[in-house]
Amino acid sequence: MKIVITGSRGFIGTHLRNSLQDHDIVEWDTKLNKTFNGVLFQDIKDFSVEPDTDFVIHLAGLTDVRESIEIPDVYWTQNVEYSKRVFEACRGIPMLYASSSCVKEWWLSPYGTTKKVLEELAHAGHIGLRFTNVYGDGAPDFMLTSRLVNGNVTHKTNHVRDFVHVSDVVSVVQFFLDQGTEGKNRFYEVGSGIGTKISDLVERHGYDVPMKEGDKCEMSDNTADISDILKEGWVGPQVFI
């Protein structure tokens, strides 16, 4: 298959690209036509798609909820304006794109708002994957799972989070590559389906830090309802935190 991946060198994109080595991969990202190990990065603001493309996986975008409060215009440009071009170019082409569990309370942050808008912009045959908290090798430093490893934990909260391993996210994408997108829902929640209290997770890792009220831009609980995607035939998560 000829598969286009945007955000191909990001956290999830890297794991996905490595799992699809047997396919013809076309890479797009937010870098300006730079090369990495001989691979040309094409900037998604200039996105186009070749006629023989079989599938598109759109992962490129900004993902830090708190940062989006500080630079909402940048998040709108990166996550919405550039994605408009991707969606329009991919009319009639099967596509998965990165949505977020934040969509369920999209009004709390500019980031959540951008993901809600994406779900409204998507065309037939485009499926949004509402990822919860994805973790694994290469996860961004601002994520809690990364901070637990690097020692940058200053407090805990009573928020409940659904942590899903990046390998399970890759398996969801591979599932839709095999099954296609025709006749499927417009979006699916993707997580472990299990909520973990942040305070419990922090304490389990040996951190004795104060309790703090979470930021207003954060959902109190983002546990995924994965019943729809299980009904489609996905085997479910294989790795648990």
Strand order of the largest sheet: 5-2-1-6-7-8-12
| CATH superfamily placement | NAD(P)-binding Rossmann-like Domain
State the CATH architecture.
3-Layer(aba) Sandwich
What is the fold named in CATH at topology level? Rossmann fold
**What is the number of helices?**
8
Terminal-residue CA separation: 33 Å
Q: Radius of gyration, Cα only, in angstroms?
A: 18 Å
Morphology? globular
How would you sum up the major sheet? 7 strands, parallel
- Residues in helix, %: 25-40%
- Got a strand count? 13
Given as residue ranges, the uncertain stretches (5+ residues, pLDDT < 50) are: none
Approximate strand percentage = 15-25%
| Overall pLDDT score | 94
| The level-1 CATH class | Alpha Beta
Number of domains: 1
Query: Helix/strand-derived class?
Result: alpha/beta
Q: Sketch the topology as an H/E string, one letter per element.
A: EHEEEEEHHEHEEHEEHEEHH
Describe this structure in words.
33% of the residues lie in helices and 20% in strands. The protein has one domain (2-232): NAD(P)-binding Rossmann-like Domain (Rossmann fold). The two termini are 33 Å apart. By secondary structure, the protein is of the alpha/beta class. Strands 5-2-1-6-7-8-12 form a 7-stranded parallel sheet, sandwiched between helices. It has helices spanning 11-19, 65-70, 72-89, 110-121, 144-150, 166-179, 198-204, 227-232; strands spanning 2-6, 24-29, 35-36, 39-40, 42-43, 55-58, 95-100, 126-131, 133-135, 160-161, 163-165, 187-190, 196-197.
